[in-house]
Amino acid sequence: MYANSSPIIRRLRHAGFLLACGTAMLGTVQAAHAAKPAPPLNPPAALEEVASSTTSAWDRVAVLPDGRLLVELPRWAGNTGPGLAVLDASGTPHPYPDDAWNDSATPAARRLVAPADIQMEADGTLWVLDSGQPDPTRPPVADGPKIVKIDAHTGQVAQTWAIDPSMLHDGSHPATMRVGRGHAFIGDSGVPAMIVIRLDTNRQRRLMQHTSSLTAGQPITVNGRVLTNATGHTAIVNISQMAISPDGQWLYFEPLCGPVYKLDTDLLIDPTVTPIELEEGPTLWYKTPALGGITLAPDGTLYFNDVSTNSIFRLMPDRVYQKIVTDSRLHWPGGSFATRDGQLYIPTGQIDLTAPFNGGHNAIQWPVHIYRINIGALPPPKF
């Protein structure tokens, strides 16, 4: 039956993977069973405010090796300052990695035109995805779309990779990225697809275009309101969030509206895998609502930032699912960061009130905040 399949697909199937008939999913026996829900954490996790802003809406955060907070400030949200900024002890933002990389006079190939995602690795390597699109509804700036590798210990740019223009279609928007196993995996939220770049050779491939797991299938709802784009129509955002396991083997992703899927990166890095096998590859990992971020903590727990109800959920390695907090202060919890000492940093940028998601009108109620949860001190679920 599988004689014409790639060696990787045959290996996965012989290892116990099952093809779900009539779906676009390939999952393990374990993943076929729903996660065991636990009652909400009681008392809920405590929020500690660690930073605020009255000028910039951030959507992602990371912690530098020296403990400072790094924030991403998306151009499309109306921000006019640096695309990446480090916060000093008083919370004042400073361009990162330096002024030149955030200066509009610097050639596009050597500046951050429009950062779209960041990934901080345990060794201090910072990966930045630059979409090159200050306005995702317009084509990218020439030489703008790229990957930037930064040594976060020194703040020096180590290398850049330009995204080949042929990888981007009319309407494309590189929105999220994770790096692992010598490859960069980039999600195109405009024309849903996965762009895979082998970093040592710079070989680039566009895969899984319009695959159902990458494609938005429902509206984005925040506190009962359906988000609308600048023209007043229902906002549609395809694949927009990612997380990757420390060994690079498993990629977790979702269109903004949810749900979350899991994919073995073997399928993405092997050029012999067929389009049909790639379409069958993703496993529906959990039927989440709209998420502003997916974070994989060092202990293997996934944290889902639910923008629809201002909540944070955790999916534990044993597949126990639990809400740890719901709080009105978590207004659009974005791309968070989990430290090795058990702290979860969560930016709340009110992204649903920015013009692209609010019918063209910016209605952010300043200030916006970054909160911290001591996840290392959270008790285990009780049933």
From TrEMBL:
The keyword Cell cycle does not apply. GO terms for cellular component: extracellular region. Residues 1-34 form the signal peptide. Its main location: secreted. SUPFAM superfamilies: NHL repeat (SSF101898). InterPro entries: 6-blade_b-propeller_TolB-like, MRJP/yellow-related. It comes from the Bacteria. Keywords: Secreted, Signal. The keyword Oxidoreductase does not apply. It is found in: Secreted. This is Major royal jelly protein. It comes from Komagataeibacter saccharivorans.
